[in-house]
């Protein structure tokens, strides 16, 4: 069952079309990356899903309670971290929420009494996520949630989002950090100039591009008959559109020494190909 649906969505600002007939869906239990170049229409789509902006035509709807992070967090700089979280709980109708426990879960207990205006960018970002989660949402919409986070906070964010999905929630997050998307998401939607250029299961999409690194690339290349292979530097081959088992067997049969067989970096290659081509 879908947690959110975007269908034939169009958003125009005057004569400029920011979102141009966009359609995609995110199933429940999924963390979906929302990728695209600057100005592709991601924030516009997220704002419509939040109900902050009206579509020109089409629809964008999440099922159940929606919360999340937009570019501006709207916190008052003079309020304390504890107070902002408590206000977020009250706004979401969750007056019974345990604020101290939510702060601890967000690793923010030490900052509870700090004024928001005195917090670092990363701390504010973590507070934004805690404020979104305290609403106990079904659908989490996150615009660049990883921005400003250190590696520990990034890992905690990833684990929290995956936990939300494993409990049946739905997550849509925009990001330009593709490595992070690859580690966090199970699906992606790629948009360019307001249109969808790709959508699907991330592993299935990445399995379509396997990177092989070998000190004997010629030997390897000789065994790759029938595969679509491109060279990427002196010792690296990229095999496109092939089943990993079949590639693995061809590598074994070649007898070449292999230093790496992975889909690492494949998302970037896929993204660049998709957004340049359209
Ligand atoms: N209120 C507005 N009035 C006019 N144009 C707007 C408005 N909001 C957004 N746009 C334009 O719509 C296009 C899509 O913007 P949007 O912010 O959705 O892109 P994005 O994919 O989120 O980009 P980024 O990755 O840079 O955040 C851009 O060209 C932007 O300038």
TrEMBL record:
One of its GO terms (molecular function) is ATP binding. InterPro entries: AAA+_ATPase, ABC_transporter-like_ATP-bd, P-loop_NTPase. Residues 4-218 form the ABC transporter domain. CDD domains: ABC_DR_subfamily_A (cd03230). Keywords: ATP-binding, Nucleotide-binding, Transport. Pfam families: ABC_tran (PF00005). Belongs to the ABC transporter superfamily. This is ATP-binding cassette domain-containing protein. It comes from Solirubrobacter deserti. The lineage of its organism: Bacteria, Bacillati, Actinomycetota, Thermoleophilia, Solirubrobacterales.
């Amino acid at each position: 069952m879908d947690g959110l649906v975007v269908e034939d969505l169009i958003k125009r600002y005057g004569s400029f079309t920011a979102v141009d007939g966009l359609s995609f869906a995110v199933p429940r239990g999924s963390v979906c990356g929302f990728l695209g170049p600057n100005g592709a229409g991601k924030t516009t789509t997220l704002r419509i899903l939040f109900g902050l902006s009206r579509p020109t035509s089409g629809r964008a709807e999440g099922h159940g309670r929606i919360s999340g992070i937009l570019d501006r967090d709207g916190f008052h700089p003079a309020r304390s971290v504890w107070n902002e979280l408590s206000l977020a709980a009250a706004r979401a109708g969750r007056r019974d929420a345990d604020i101290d426990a939510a702060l601890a879960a967000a690793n923010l207990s030490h900052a509870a009494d700090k004024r928001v205006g005195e917090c670092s960018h990363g701390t504010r970002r973590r507070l934004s996520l805690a404020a979104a989660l305290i609403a106990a949402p079904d659908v989490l919409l996150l615009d660049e949630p990883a921005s400003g986070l250190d590696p520990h906070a990034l890992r905690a964010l990833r684990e929290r989002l995956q936990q939300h999905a494993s409990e049946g929630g739905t997550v849509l997050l925009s990001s330009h950090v593709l490595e992070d998307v690859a580690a966090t998401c199970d699906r992606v939607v790629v948009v360019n100039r307001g249109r969808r250029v790709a959508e699907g299961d991330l592993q299935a999409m990445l399995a379509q591009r396997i990177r092989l690194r070998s000190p004997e690339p010629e030997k390897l290349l000789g065994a790759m008959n029938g595969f679509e292979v491109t060279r990427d530097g002196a010792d690296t081959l990229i095999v496109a559109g092939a089943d990993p088992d079949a590639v693995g067997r061809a590598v074994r049969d070649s007898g070449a020494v292999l230093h790496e067989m992975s889909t690492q970096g494949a998302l970037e290659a896929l993204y660049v190909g998709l957004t340049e081509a359209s």
